[in-house]
């Protein structure tokens, strides 16, 4: 763990820390990415998990519109660019180790590319998995084409 995050364990509430220092000390993976969990700010519903690089996180903090890094496209992914289902940042947090970001967002419509409200629609048991929700919007309607 970074010395900065270790020092923050003993800090009092309200102690300011420069954002650049936090981002420098954050634990980015070998590809320069950090996991980001999106949570609906008012209900606490966990919507999705995606990846951010430093530039995506900085853009998100600066603009209030959530931007991720798409590993498959190797490009920025501004949530809602193609579907219109945007995420607007309400609050961002780093965890105690500096290796995960929590984004409290205001999600318009479905967060999942399947058209469901959230990406965690597969409930697991020891015996099987079960789809537990229907799409709010069919994916073909959401994106205007077959995926």
CATH superfamily caption: Phosphoribosyl-AMP cyclohydrolase
Q: Encode the helix/strand succession as letters.
A: HHEEHEEEEEEH
Q: In total, how many domains does the architecture comprise?
A: 1
Helix content: 10-25%
Q: CATH class, anyone?
A: Alpha Beta
How would you sum up the major sheet?
A: 4 strands, mixed
- The largest beta-sheet arranges its strands as 2-1-6-5
Topology-level CATH name: Ubiquitin-like (UB roll)
Mean pLDDT: 93
Q: Round the Cα radius of gyration to an integer and report it.
A: 17 Å
Distance from first to last alpha carbon: 40 Å
Tally the beta strands. Answer: 8
Helix segment tally: 4
Proportion of β residues? 25-35%
Low-confidence stretches: none
The global form is globular
Going by CATH, the architecture would be Roll
Structural class: alpha+beta
What does this structure look like?
- The mean pLDDT is 93.
- The termini are far apart.
- The chain has a single domain, classed as Roll (Ubiquitin-like (UB roll)), CATH 3.10.20.810.
- The chain is an alpha+beta fold and 147 residues long.
- Helices cover 19% and strands 31% of the residues.
- The chain has helices spanning 3-8, 19-25, 54-63, 139-143, and strands at 33-40, 46-53, 67-70, 75-78, 87-94, 101-107, 122-124, 129-131.
- It is built from 4 helices and 8 strands, in the order H-H-E-E-H-E-E-E-E-E-E-H.
- The radius of gyration is 17 Å and the shape is globular.
- The strands form 3 sheets. Strands 2-1-6-5 form a 4-stranded mixed sheet, covered by helices on one side. The chain has a two-stranded antiparallel ribbon with strand order 3-4.
- Its main location: cytoplasm.
- It is found in: Cytoplasm.
- Belongs to the PRA-CH family.
- Keywords: Amino-acid biosynthesis, Cytoplasm, Histidine biosynthesis, Hydrolase, Magnesium, Metal-binding, Zinc.
- InterPro entries: PRA-CH, PRib_AMP_CycHydrolase_dom, PRib_AMP_CycHydrolase_sf.
């Amino acid at each position: 763990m970074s010395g900065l995050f270790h020092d923050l364990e003993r800090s009092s509430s309200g102690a300011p820390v420069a954002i650049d220092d936090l981002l420098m000390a954050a634990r980015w993976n070998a590809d320069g990415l950090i996991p980001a969990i999106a949570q609906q700010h008012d209900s606490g519903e966990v919507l999705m998990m995606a990846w951010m690089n430093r530039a995506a996180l900085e853009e998100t903090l600066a603009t209030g519109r959530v931007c991720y890094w798409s590993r498959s496209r190797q490009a920025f992914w501004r949530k809602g660019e193609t579907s219109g289902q945007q995420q607007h940042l309400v609050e961002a947090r780093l965890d105690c180790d500096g290796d995960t970001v929590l984004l409290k967002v205001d999600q318009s419509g479905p967060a999942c590319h399947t058209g469901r409200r959230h990406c965690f629609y597969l409930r697991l048991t020891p015996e099987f998995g079960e789809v537990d929700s229907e799409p709010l919007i069919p994916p073909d309607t959401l994106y205007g084409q077959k995926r």
